[in-house]
Write a structure and sequence with these properties.
The complex is a heterodimer of chains A (317) and B (533).
Chain A lengths: L1 H8 L2 H26 L7 H19 L2 H25 L4 H24 L17 E2 L10 H5 L2 E2 H19 L1 H11 L1 H6 L4 H27 L11 H11 L4 H22 L6 H4 L2 H31 L1
Antiparallel strand pairs in A: 1-2
Helix pairs in contact in A: 2-7, 2-10, 2-11, 2-12, 3-4, 3-5, 3-10, 3-11, 4-5, 4-10, 7-8, 8-10, 11-12, 11-14, 12-14
Chain B lengths: L1 H11 L5 E11 L5 E11 L3 E5 L6 H8 L7 E6 L2 E3 L4 H6 L2 E4 L11 H6 L14 H14 L15 H14 L4 E5 L7 H16 L3 E6 L2 H7 L2 E6 L2 E7 L5 H8 L18 E11 L5 E11 L3 E5 L6 H8 L7 E6 L2 E2 L5 H6 L2 E4 L3 H5 L6 H5 L10 E2 L2 E2 L1 H14 L16 H14 L4 E5 L7 H16 L3 E5 L3 H7 L2 E6 L2 E6 L7 H8 L7 H5 L5
Parallel strand pairs in B: 3-8, 3-9, 6-7, 7-8, 13-20, 13-21, 16-19, 19-20
Antiparallel strand pairs in B: 1-2, 1-4, 4-5, 9-10, 11-12, 11-14, 14-15, 17-18, 21-22
The chains are: A mainly alpha (317), B alpha/beta (533).
Chain lengths: 317, 533
C-alpha cells in the first residue's frame, strides 16, 4: 500500500495538482504578508475570498468576460478590506472584530446575495460556462520537456500570477519607498509619525492590497478551481493562509514555501482518500495535522532564535 | 526676575539673534494638571541652551510644544521674530526644528541609511525603486559633513545606543533642521559615548546650529552649555549664563521645596530587621549599571526613605524586591528568608505589600470593580469562599469596610475603578496593600499625581502602619514627601547609595539637592551604617 502511495505521489499529475491547490492559499497568504508588514492583522481574508468569489462569477456572467469577472472580484476584495480598515482606523473598533464580521458576512451574506441577484440557492450552477473560466496556458518550450512540462505547464493564468506575485511582493516590500514606509509603520509607528509619514494612509494602502490579493484568491476558487461558486467552497483557505504566513515568518518566499506545504497536504489527502482500505475520516485530518506540526516547528525555531540572540547580546555585555 | 534678564538681553543682542521665542506658554491638560505655567523661553542663534529641572518640572512638555507634539493652552511662539503655529511634527520639521527623543524613533530592521532617508527615500531613474546606493551616499555625506561616525549599511537593531543617537541627529539634520532639541541625550549613554557626543555637539554649534539640551545632570550642563533655563513645578525659574551660576545655586533653584505638608508623627522605635538587601547588582540590557552593590536594611517600626532623581536605580530596586526582575548578584531577604525568584504570590504570603509606582499597570485592573480589585490579593482566603463558590456576603462586607476606612469616594463597590479620580484609584491600591497587615510595605511614589487631600490621607495611613510595627520602604522623587515621611533616609545616585541620614527630621533641601545631583557623597563608613543585622 505504501508502495502504491509513493508511486502515486511521485508522478507529474500529483505535483501538478499541488501547484494548483497551492495557488489560492498563496494569494491569500501574500495578502496576509503585506498587511502584517504594516502592522495590520487582516483576519477577514476568508470572508473576502468568499464574497469576491461570488462577485467574480457574477461580473463574469453579466459581462460575459472572465477578465472583467476577475477584476470585479479584486475591486470587491479591495472595498471589503478598506471597510475593515475604516472600522479599525477611523471608528477605532478592534480590527479582529471587523475581520470576523466580514467572515460572517462571507458565510451567510453570500447565499443571500446570490439569491437576490440570480434567484439561485447555494451555488451558481450553470452560470459559469467553459468560456467564462479562467483560461489555462501552455508554456512553449517547457511544455515539451518530459515530466517537468507536465508539472509546470498548462496551469491557469492566475496560478502563474500567484507565483509571480511572490517575487513582486518581495520587490515592493524591500525595494520601493512604499515598502520602506510600510515596514517602518509596522515596526515603529512613532518613528514614521515623527518624520511626517502618515501611519493611517500606509495602513489603508496595505490592507487594500491585502484585499486585492484575497480577491484574486476568491476569483481563482470560483472561476477555475471549483468551476462555479458554492457556499462551502473556500473551506478555511483564508485561515490556512494566515497559518502559512505565520510559518513563513511573514516573508514572501517563506510564505510561498509554507503555502506549498499546505498545498501538498491537501493534495495528499485527496490522493489517499481515493485509495482502498483507508478511512477517509482519518485522512481528512492530514492538512490540519500538517498545520499543527508546522506551527510547532515554527514556534520552536523562533524560540531558539530568540535564545541565541539573547545569549549573543549577553555575551557582548 | 526673568523679566529683567530678558530686558537686559534686548539691550545687547540684536532682535534677529532670537531664533526662537516662546512667550507666556501655559499648558493645562484636560484632567486639570498644569504642566507649564506662563513660561518664557528664548533661544539665541548658535547657542547650546540647557533646560534643567526635576522630573515633572515641565521641561519635556515645553519642548513637545515647540516640536508640535502638544498644543499650548495659551502663549505664543515666534521663529525669527515671526509668530508661528506649530501644529504637528511635520510643521516643526519644515520650520527647521528637529528633535531627538529620549526613546529613539528608529525602525530596528531597517539599515542606518534607510532610517535616515525614511519618508524621503531617493529613487532610481525608473522612479519606482529605492536607490539604496544614493541613500547610503546621502547618509555618508551628511555623516562626514557633521562629523558623526555611523555605519550606513548596518541594521539599526545591531548598532550600539551611541550610534543610534547619531542616526537620530542625522535624521533631523538631513531634513534641514537648524535647531536641535535633545531630550536627556546622555541618559542612555556610557561616559565615553557622552564625551564623544559633546564633541560633536560643539562642532555643530560651531557650524551655526542651535541646540537645546534637556537634562538634570549638573556636570554636563556646566561642561557644554552657554545658557540655561531652570524649571520647577511647571514654571521657569529664570535664564542664566552658565558661566555665571554655581552648581549649588542651580541645585537650589531646581530642587527647592514649595508647599510643605506637615505630617505629625512620633519618633520611631525600630526593632528587628525585616528587609535585608546586600550587594545587589543589576546591569540593564543597554549595558548600563543600574544597581551597583546596593546594601541596606529596613527595620520593624521605621520608615526608610529613598530619595533621588528618577532614573538612578530606584525603579530597578523595587522591581528586584517584588520579583518583577532578577538581579545579577546580591541577596534580598525578608525576615531571614530569601525572596529572590519567588512568585509574587509567595512574596505576598511572606507579608510583603507593594504600592507600585505605575498604579494603572501594576496597581489595579482598571475595568474591574473596586470590590474585585481590593480582594484580588486575598480571594483564595478561606473567609471569602464557600465550597467552590465565593462567599459574596463576606466579600461585600470586606470591600464596603475598606471603602469606608480608606475614604474611597465611589458610587458603590461595584463601580469600575477606571471611573474614579486618580486620588481615589490610589486609595483603592492603598486600601488593599495596607489592610493586609504587611510586615514590610514597599511604597513607590505613593502620592504621585494625586490631590492634596488624598496625599495627606495616604501619608498618614503609612505613618500609622509603621507605628503599628510594619517596616516601610518609601521610594519617592518628591523631596517634601521623603523628608517629611521618613524616619531615616538614603539617597541614591547612579545606582549607588551616596548618603544615609539616620535622622531625617533635620534635613534641608539644599543639602539633599547636592547629594541627589551627585555633587557630594558620604564616606563608605557613613553609608554602611544603614546595614543592620
Amino acid at each position: 500500500m505504501i508502495g502504491d502511495l509513493l508511486l502515486s505521489i511521485f508522478n507529474a499529475d500529483f505535483l501538478y495538482s499541488v501547484i494548483r491547490i497551492t495557488a489560492p492559499i498563496l494569494f491569500a497568504a501574500l495578502g496576509a504578508v503585506i498587511a502584517e508588514k504594516a502592522g495590520v492583522v487582516n483576519i477577514g481574508l476568508e470572508g473576502i475570498m468568499m464574497i469576491s468569489a461570488l462577485f467574480g462569477v457574477l461580473f463574469g456572467y453579466w459581462t460575459q468576460s472572465w477578465l472583467i469577472g476577475v477584476i470585479g472580484a479584486v475591486v470587491i476584495g479591495v472595498l471589503l478590506a478598506l471597510l475593515i480598515g475604516f472600522f479599525a482606523f477611523e471608528m477605532k473598533t478592534d480590527i479582529i472584530l471587523g475581520g470576523i464580521a466580514v467572515n460572517m458576512l462571507g458565510a451567510g451574506g453570500t447565499i443571500f446575495l446570490l439569491d437576490m441577484f440570480t434567484g439561485m440557492k447555494g451555488n451558481t450552477g450553470s452560470l459559469v460556462t467553459r468560456e467564462l473560466l479562467i483560461p489555462t496556458v501552455d508554456i512553449p518550450l517547457i511544455q515539451s520537456i518530459p515530466f517537468l512540462g507536465q508539472v509546470l505547464s498548462g496551469h491557469a493564468v492566475l496560478t502563474y500570477l500567484a507565483f509571480l506575485l511572490v517575487w513582486l511582493m518581495w520587490v515592493v516590500i524591500y525595494k520601493t519607498p512604499l515598502g520602506l514606509n510600510i515596514r517602518a509603520v509596522g515596526e515603529n509607528p512613532n518613528a514614521a509619525t515623527s518624520i511626517g509619514v502618515s501611519v493611517q494612509k500606509i495602513q489603508y494602502i496595505a490592507i487594500g492590497l491585502s484585499g486585492a490579493l484575497a480577491g484574486l484568491g476568491g476569483a481563482f476558487m470560483s472561476m477555475y478551481y471549483s468551476q462555479g461558486w458554492n457556499s462551502g467552497m473556500v473551506a478555511g483557505r483564508g485561515f490556512i493562509a494566515l497559518a502559512a504566513t505565520a510559518m513563513g515568518r511573514g516573508e514572501p518566499v517563506g510564505t510561498m514555501l509554507s503555502s506549498l506545504l499546505f498545498g501538498l497536504a491537501q493534495a495528499l489527502r485527496t490522493k489517499v482518500s481515493g485509495m482502498q482500505g483507508v478511512s477517509s475520516y482519518l485522512v481528512s485530518v492530514i492538512p490540519y495535522l500538517v498545520t499543527i506540526i508546522g506551527l510547532v516547528l515554527y514556534a520552536i525555531s523562533t524560540k531558539n532564535k530568540l535564545k541565541k540572540r539573547h545569549t549573543v547580546t549577553k555575551g557582548a555585555e | 526676575m526673568e523679566q529683567e534678564v530678558i530686558v537686559e538681553q534686548k539691550d545687547f543682542v540684536e532682535q534677529e539673534d532670537f531664533v526662537i521665542q516662546m512667550r507666556g506658554i501655559s499648558k493645562v491638560y484636560p484632567n486639570g494638571i498644569a504642566a507649564n505655567k506662563d513660561v518664557d523661553f528664548i533661544l539665541r542663534r548658535g547657542e547650546i541652551h540647557a533646560i534643567m529641572g526635576e522630573n515633572g518640572a515641565g521641561k519635556s512638555t515645553l519642548m513637545k510644544i515647540l516640536f508640535g507634539l502638544e498644543q499650548p493652552t495659551s502663549g505664543e511662539i515666534l521663529i525669527n521674530g515671526e509668530p508661528v503655529a506649530i501644529t504637528s511634527p511635520s510643521k516643526a520639521i519644515s520650520l527647521g526644528i528637529g528633535m531627538v527623543h529620549q526613546h529613539f524613533m528608529l525602525v530596528p530592521s531597517l539599515t542606518v541609511a534607510e532610517n535616515i532617508v525614511l519618508g524621503m527615500a531617493p529613487t532610481t531613474k525608473s522612479r519606482v525603486l529605492v536607490d539604496f546606493k544614493k541613500a547610503v551616499q546621502i547618509a555618508e555625506e551628511n555623516a562626514a559633513r557633521y562629523n558623526l561616525r555611523i555605519d550606513p549599511n548596518a541594521k539599526v537593531m545591531d548598532i550600539p545606543v551611541g550610534m543610534k543617537q547619531k542616526v537620530e541627529i542625522l535624521k533631523a539634520l538631513v531634513r534641514g533642521a537648524k535647531i536641535l532639541i535633545l531630550d536627556e541625550p546622555t541618559a542612555v549613554l556610557t561616559t565615553q559615548e557622552t564625551s564623544e557626543l559633546f564633541k560633536e555637539l560643539i562642532a555643530l554649534k560651531d557650524q551655526g546650529f542651535t541646540i537645546v539640551f534637556i537634562s538634570h545632570k549638573l556636570k554636563e550642563i556646566k561642561q557644554i552649555t552657554d545658557r540655561l533655563t531652570i524649571m520647577r513645578g511647571g514654571r521657569s525659574m529664570g535664564v542664566y549664563n552658565t558661566a555665571d551660576i554655581s552648581e549649588s545655586e542651580i541645585s537650589r533653584l531646581m530642587v527647592g521645596r514649595d508647599v510643605v505638608l506637615k505630617v505629625v508623627k512620633g519618633k520611631s522605635q525600630p526593632t528587628d530587621t525585616v528587609l535585608k538587601v546586600r550587594d545587589l547588582e543589576y546591569t540593564n540590557r543597554w549595558n548600563k549599571k543600574m544597581l551597583d552593590k546596593l546594601s541596606f536594611s529596613v527595620r520593624k517600626g521605621e520608615i526608610l526613605g529613598i530619595a533621588g532623581v528618577e532614573g538612578n536605580g530606584q525603579r530597578e530596586l523595587v522591581e528586584m524586591l517584588f520579583n518583577l526582575n532578577v538581579p545579577d548578584a546580591g541577596t534580598v531577604t525578608v525576615c531571614g528568608e530569601s525572596i529572590i525568584k519567588l512568585s509574587q504570590d509567595k512574596i505576598r504570603n511572606r507579608g510583603v505589600s507593594l504600592v507600585p509606582e505605575d498604579r494603572m499597570t501594576y496597581g489595579i485592573a482598571d475595568i474591574a470593580s473596586i470590590e474585585e480589585n481590593v480582594i484580588s490579593d486575598r480571594f483564595s482566603n478561606k473567609r471569602f469562599n464557600k465550597g467552590p463558590l465565593f462567599n459574596m456576603r463576606e466579600i461585600h462586607h470586606e470591600s464596603n469596610n475598606l471603602i469606608v476606612d480608606y475614604r474611597i469616594l465611589a458610587k458603590s463597590a461595584k463601580q469600575q475603578v477606571k471611573m474614579l479620580s486618580g486620588g481615589n484609584i490610589q486609595k483603592v491600591v492603598v486600601a488593599r496593600e495596607l489592610s493586609s497587615q504587611p510586615t514590610l510595605l514597599i511604597a513607590d511614589q505613593p502620592t504621585r499625581g494625586i490631590d492634596v487631600g488624598a496625599t495627606e490621607f495616604i501619608r498618614n495611613q503609612i505613618v500609622d502602619l509603621s507605628r503599628g510595627g510594619t517596616a516601610v520602604l518609601l521610594v519617592s522623587a518628591d523631596l517634601n514627601e521623603v523628608i517629611e515621611l521618613s524616619d531615616s533616609l538614603i539617597v541614591m545616585y547612579g545606582g549607588k547609595i551616596v548618603a544615609y541620614f539616620e535622622d531625617s527630621s533635620q534635613l534641608d533641601d539644599v543639602t539633599m539637592g547636592e547629594y541627589m545631583l551627585g555633587l557630594k557623597h558620604q564616606t563608605e563608613e557613613e553609608i554602611a551604617k544603614v546595614c543592620y543585622e
